[in-house]
Write a structure and sequence with these properties.
single chain; about 80 residues; alpha+beta; 2 helices; 5 strands
């Protein structure tokens, strides 16, 4: 199973027990999010507020079925509201 490097903005640290990065084994963004929430349920409020996921610098907003490769860098950031 691919090992993914997951990075977070500083405002997410309290929900992650102070961590700013984690290594998680996951094959898709959907699986990564499921594992993350199982381990850190306090992240749910951030997810409810809206997040954006970037894999190796490419943003994925609504497609959680994207497959991850070993060593992928995933970043979780708040979704910027606009209009």
């Amino acid at each position: 199973m691919p090992m993914i490097n997951v990075n977070f903005i500083s405002s997410y640290r309290p929900a992650l027990g102070g961590a700013d990065a984690l290594e998680i084994e996951a094959t898709t963004l959907r699986e990564l999010m499921r594992i993350l929430l199982a381990k850190y349920p306090r992240m749910q409020s951030h997810i409810d507020d809206g997040i954006v996921l970037a894999i190796n610098g490419e943003i994925y907003r609504d497609n959680l079925d994207v497959e991850l490769q070993d060593g992928s860098e995933v970043y979780l950031m708040p979704r910027i509201q606009g209009g």
